[in-house]
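Exam revision sheet. Question 4 asks you to relate a sequence to its structure. Input first:
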Amino acid sequence: MQHTEPSGHTDALNTTASYHPTDRTVPTRSKDRASWDRKLVHAILDEACLCHLGFVRDGAPVVLPTLYGRIGERLYVHGSTGSRPLRTAKTADPGLPVCLTVTHVDALVLARSAFHHSVNYRSVMVHGTAVTVTDPEERRLALDAIVDQAVPGRSRDSRPADAKELAATAVIRLDLDEVSAKVRTGGPSDDPEDVALPHWTGIVPLTRGYAAPVPADDLDPAVGIPDYLTKL
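Answer key, structure tokens:
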């Protein structure tokens, strides 16, 4: 998936191979699974389109599932201008403190003991302050990136938002600064005394796939399936 930098955006982090660990990005358990490798973080983010955005509202935690897009060292999330987190990001100084996560579950790990059951996964966690995007060009690029994050190439094959739609849409930006990845691979970790138990053990891989596109009822039959959908 290609990601184009907004005009005028540069980031010194782009010159380093890894993000800098912080107290919030170093896990307290299974530290060996943590990584701050920039390419790994980007790969995990680019393979997904759904994130979970966590923030505090009226003193209580809230986590919202939402679509996102990545452009370089920035993540973008959009929503209604009436949305609480998007309104808060605009009015709060310097912005809205958030935690954003993305997770892929790659396999179920079935051990002989219930305690050692697990999953193989790849995840990214980003801490930071979300701010409202006001520059028109950056907003346009961000909205295209969110569409293309879900279906690469789709933004070029759909009508851009008009003035009324843009007025009803807010976009927030979260810089990839305080970020880490965490990955589990491999098989079960049974206790030695359980190895002789007569229970099946191993992994059950999970795969992501796409079925054949289903056209809308009112689609002109002359409009064929675009190439970018056949390549999903």
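Marking note for examiners. The chain has a mean pLDDT of 91.
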